[in-house]
Amino acid sequence: MTLFSFFFLLFLLCLHALAVSPAPAGRGSDQLALLSFKSTIAPPRGLLASWNTSTHHCSWPGVACGRRHPDRVVSLRMASFNLSGRISPFLGNLSFLRELHLGDNHLAGQIPPELGHLARLRLLSLRVNSLQGSIPVHGSWRMHQPHHA
């Protein structure tokens, strides 16, 4: 095997390793979930203007991130934000979420079953909306029932 062939093979192996590596969870995944949620709602003009890729999602209105995992969303507090639209199923990707406050808005449609994927969720407020369906109960919620306000 020539030296060129050896380095070419090494290059291909490295390229393959990069191609099959999973994307890291965290900032990107939580930010994408929040931006997907934003795309399904109609907030009052300017309210979520800072919800974009040029600012860190942990500084967005209504969003709080964790201390131990500073890029992971632990609380989404958007009660009484005068939001209309639907709840995005992508909120189910916020795997560190402990509190979801969406009450007192004008949200409609089905409650996404993907909310049942939020194993750390402890408080869920969806009251005073026009939502249909039941609150999904999956996984660890059976041991730790979230409080539904």
Describe this entry's structure for a reader.
- The protein is α/β, with parallel strands linked by helices and 149 residues long.
- It has one domain: Ribonuclease Inhibitor (Leucine-rich repeat, LRR (right-handed beta-alpha superhelix)), CATH 3.80.10.
- The chain has helices spanning 3-20, 27-40; strands at residues 41-42, 63-65, 73-77, 84-85, 99-101, 106-110, 123-125, 130-132, 147-148.
- The protein has a five-stranded mixed beta sheet, with no helix packed on it. The protein has a four-stranded mixed beta sheet with strand order 1-4-6-8.
Topology, pairings included?
Elements: H1 3-20, H2 27-40, E1 41-42, E2 63-65, E3 73-77, E4 84-85, E5 99-101, E6 106-110, E7 123-125, E8 130-132, E9 147-148
Parallel strand pairs: 3-5, 4-6, 5-7, 6-8, 7-9
Antiparallel strand pairs: 1-4, 2-3
